[in-house]
Amino acid sequence: MRETTQQEDFLRGIWRENPVLIQMLGLCPALAVTNNVENSLAMGLATLFVLCGSSLLVSLCQRFIPGEIRISAYILIIATFVTVADLSLQALVPDIHKALGAFIALIVVNCMILGRQEAFASKRPVGRALLDALGTGAGFSIALVMLGAVREVLGSGSFLGVSLFGPSYEPWIVMILPPGGFLTLGVLLLGLAWWQERRPDRIEASQRRQAGSQEAIAVAGIATSGRPTPTRGEAG
Amino acid sequence: MTASTRIVSASPHIKQGDSTPTIMWSVVASLVPVVASAIYFFGPSAILVLAASTAGALAPESLLGGRGARSLRDGSAAITGILLGLTLPPGIPLWMAFLGGAFGIGFGKLVFGGLGQNVFNPALLGRAFLQAAFPVAITTWPIRAESWWNLRGDNFALPLMSPSVPEAMTGATPLGLMKFEQMTTPSWDLMLGTTGGSLGETSGLIILICGLYLAARRHLDWRIPASILGSVALFSTLLHGLDAARYPGPVFMLFSGGLMLGAVYMATDMVTSPVTHRGCWIFGAGIGFLVLVIRLWGGLSEGVMYAILLMNALVPFINRATQPRIFGTLGVGGES
Question: Which of B60, B76, B153, B236 has the maximal Cβ count within 10 Å?
Fold first, then answer.
């Protein structure tokens, strides 16, 4: 495995391995509670908190957790932080807590969180585990807020509760219902796929632009590592 | 095909007259009487709604259809637009009709890869989207206007804004009356189309005649409408016999709502219907059964749209299950 820099640890979760948009993990909350920006943000931040807390603890305890029961240990740790998040939301923002309903408790079984523990936090020092959790959680929150923004603007004609189009706006009711979540996510992924497909063209164009300077480097005899590696790990 | 290139070949000599554009444009031509009756019954509103939904269907096709205007010229997007318009109430705001057409072509056809690749009927998908997005606007039926020239609703509502609907202008469809007020409509009114409803769900007889023309030209498989209407007639006769007070008779069921339009024009879409003859019978019988189930026991008053869309989803399985035996072999798939 190629060692990664700290910057990569953080940024990877936000874009290149975005849990929702690229890895397609945690889709249940991403589709279920993103009918407005407020709920999306609350869900994203709650998940970010749980992810950071459990990555920290798993990374700290990695020497003491026996391999045979590690999954149950991770689940216990995650469940602890979910309970903290659940009770805090209930105390601080009871309305949002009510709107999110069972999906707060279901953060426990969000495969994105368990995946980060198993694949990253349990094998890395605390600092990097925390960076990775922050990046992944932020990527998850960004994706949720994107979904929530589209659905709230079309489905209620407002953004964060502020009306955008005036009182006679005809809401697209389908957008705040579950089909709207699927539609929005599908369109978002379609746009991303289109963007990715055009990527080779853009890379080629930028290489053509840089050709002159690269030749100059080659002439100077500096060993270059060749073409930049393709940045995107293809999600299967 | 130009006549200047001559190909000499051995017999049989088949004169190839049918191509996708000829079939599609002849379907469009067969819709002329249906559109004319819609205009006769609903006045300028019908023209406006049909124009808006057709424009909506053509817009994504010409923007994203690819390879020049080839897909525009074959007429399939125009059919989708006209058929969608015929399923809409005359008073619907034009921007909704446009949006429905654009959604139907964009998400019902282009994302699957264009003509021939789509799973669902694009016109019905557009209508399903409108029904889910604007359930009130799409079930607001106008009553008979005083003058032919009157608009049948707030057609010119600003884009994204809700239409203003005066209470006195709304009526109910025969199916709605049956379901929610236990009132029946005279059969003759239903056949001629002098009832409330969507643009194309009024005159059953005209649609049936247009369907016969298309079937005679082999542009639709007669088995599909025959099996849909047959199963609706059969099941409604049975139920009517069981409890005549609760379940209306077959004539009402056949000529009310969008059943005729759906059976003749929507279910017979060549792309989204089965390819085998046996499959067509199964497909049609399934639609007829589902229509009755939704109409009689479902929450909606009309179920043709969802019945066809549901059976569209089953078409690949029907095709696989009804593969005919290859001539000269014993089993399916050439096992001998």
Answer: B76
Whole-angstrom Cα distance, residue B200 to residue B198?
6
- What are the CA-CA distances from residue A151 to residues A58, A83, A147, A159, B308 (Å)? 36, 28, 6, 9, 28
Query: Taking the domains of chain A in order of start, what are their residue ranges?
Result: 6-197
Is the pLDDT reported for residue B173 higher than 60?
yes
Instruction: Say which amino acid occupies B298.
Output: G
* pTM for the whole structure: 0.82
Task: Please report, for residues A93, B37, B47, B201, the alpha-carbon distance to residue B80 in angstroms, rounded to integers and kept in the order given.
Answer: 48, 18, 16, 16
Alpha carbon distance B188, A96 (integer Å): 56
Strands A162-163 vs A158-159: parallel, antiparallel or unpaired: antiparallel
Residue of B nearest to A190 (CA): B111
Report whether A151 contacts A175 (CB < 8 A): yes
* Residue B249 per-residue DSSP state: -
C-alpha to C-alpha distances, A97 to A85, A162, B306, nearest whole angstrom: 10, 20, 35
Q: Closest-CA residue in chain B for A176?
A: B133
Is it true that the peptide bond before B12 is cis, omega within 30 degrees of 0? yes
Rounded Cα distance between A101 and B61, Å, is 42
Residues 6+ apart with CB under 8 A from A193: none
Q: pLDDT tens for residues B101-112?
A: 999 998 988 888
Token pair of A121, please?
């936090």
User: Of B304, B289, B280, whose CA–CA distance to B223 is shortest?
Assistant: B280
